[in-house]
Structure formats: C-alpha cells, structure tokens
From TrEMBL:
Entry-linked Pfam families: HTH_1, LysR_substrate
GO molecular function terms attached to this record: DNA binding; DNA-binding transcription factor activity
Keyword annotations: Activator, DNA-binding, Transcription, Transcription regulation
SUPFAM superfamilies: Periplasmic binding protein-like II, Winged helix' DNA-binding domain
Name the record gives this protein: Bacterial regulatory helix-turn-helix protein, LysR family protein 105
Domain (HTH lysR-type): residue spans on this chain: 1-58
Similarity remark: Belongs to the LysR transcriptional regulatory family.
Highest rank taxon of the organism: Bacteria
Amino acid sequence: MDLKNLRVFTRIAEAGSLTRAAAALGIAQSALSRQLSELEQEFGGRLFFRTGRGVLLTELGESLIPRAQALLLEADQLLEEAQAAQRKPAGIVNLGVIPSLSQPLIGMLLTYTQARYPGIRLRVFEGYSGEIEAWLANGKIDIGIYNRYRAASTRPQEVLFETEMKLVTSAGSAVAASRELRLADLAAVPLALPVRPNSLRAVLDSLTLRAGIELNVVLEADSGVVIKDAILRGGLHSILPSHAVSTELADGSLVAIGLADPAVRQTVLMDLSRQRPATAATRQLFKALPDLARQVVAGAPADKPRRPRAAPRSG
C-alpha cells in the first residue's frame, strides 16, 4: 500500500465517480481502476459499490476513509514541514475565534501575515466557545481562541487576558448614565444574549438561580453582529466585554456599564488542536497571536494581559 493508492481511494470517495476522480487526478480511468483494484486486494475487500450513477462506499470503505484522509493529511503536512525548513512558514492555518475578538483581530492578523509571512493563508471559523472547543477536539481547526468564566481544565492553554463583562447599551437608553449596575438590576432591562448552550449563559443561569432573579431575554442569537445590531437599533442591552464593541464605545454610540454584586469575569484562552500536526505556520501564528490579542484589548482598563509562554514544538 502506498500513498498514491490511498489518494486514489479518497479522491474517488469525494468525487463519487471513477470518471470524475480520474479527471481530477489527471490519469486515465483504466489506470485509476487498476490502482483501486490493487488497494482492494491489499485491504481484502471491496471499497466501493458500482451504481448506475457512480460509486458508493461499502461498509469497509466507510470504516477506512477517515483514517486514509488523516494519513494523507499528515503526509502532506510532513512534506510541507520539510519544505518549510528551507523557507519561511507557509500553508493554511485553520483558526477558530469567538465573535467578541474576531473584529479587528482577524484584520490585524492578516496585516501581520501579509507583511512577514505572505505564504501563510488563513481559514477562519467564528463561533462561540463550546463550538471552538469541539473544533479543537475533532481537528477542524489548528488554533482556537475561546473564553471561560469558571476554572479552566487541566489542559495547558495559553491565557491571553482577563476582562470584566459589562452591560452594553445604546447611548440614549434609560440606564446609559449609570456608573454601575447590580445583577438584580438586569431583571428590569430587555436583553440580547447568545443562544444556549453557551458558557456565558451557563454562568448567568447559575447566578440568577441562586439570586432568585429572572432575566428578560428578548433576543437569543448565535451571531455577535446580530446582538450588536439589536443594541444599536432595537433598544436592547447585552452583556459583553468592552473590546467587543470598542469602535462603538469610541464613537459614543454605545456605553459599557460595570457589573457588580457579583462582577462577571471572562478569561480568554488560546489552545492548539491535539488532532492536527503543528506546522511551522501554525506555530508562528500561535506565537504572534497573544500580542495581537492584547492590542485589541489595550483600550480597556480592566483587562489584565498575561505574558505568553513559548510557542509549542511540533510533535
């Protein structure tokens, strides 16, 4: 068994047709069929059912395709690592980031890579913390930036910074002039919050249950853009870190009010997927991201940056 035959196997599975797979690989269909037959002999069974419309994976094929794809990915990244030793880091880095940091962090990261490492390409996935942790666990992303409101796990994540959550409201709202609000005060304001399951919602649910308070959640959304627009145009309020609305705070369209009794603190973390090899490009961005993230929150006085650890080695 060699990588060439494995690549034939995965390409046929992706194309669903021997004809389309042969065209994609740039080889004759007869050569493709021969390589597939060799692989089926090595595996001891048929990998595909032939149908009038193409091919479908057999039970054996279904069981083998994830491992074949993982082996090819690792082989491609091994080749990339070897080539990268002779040049600057390059290749695709898959990054997952929470909505509160995606703007302007991604723009800043693009500026950084284009100026220093033009061979690095970004693939960005925006999601809430639970999604990002799942993407790290299943290997969808290389690097994940997410938050926690409770004790972190035993995994050695990079702590980027800590910040206090605020009640964010429009400049003309009834509570905009308040210097500070208690948790109990939030029951009187209409809120826009993330859709459950969500780490912030879990913390708020726990706090309000203990205090015997029910929040007035008018809008639930899985989009930071939608929540921000609901504050600006819909007269709603939300609980966010200041850096999530830094532009609007600067132009005066939104106001961030401190929360007390109790305060809600957010810890922003960065982690690597253990399911993907850490390429030179991934390691370089892992090293650069802490400074860029601290620049995003530099204007928030309550934010407490942490010194980064050294970038991890591949392995």
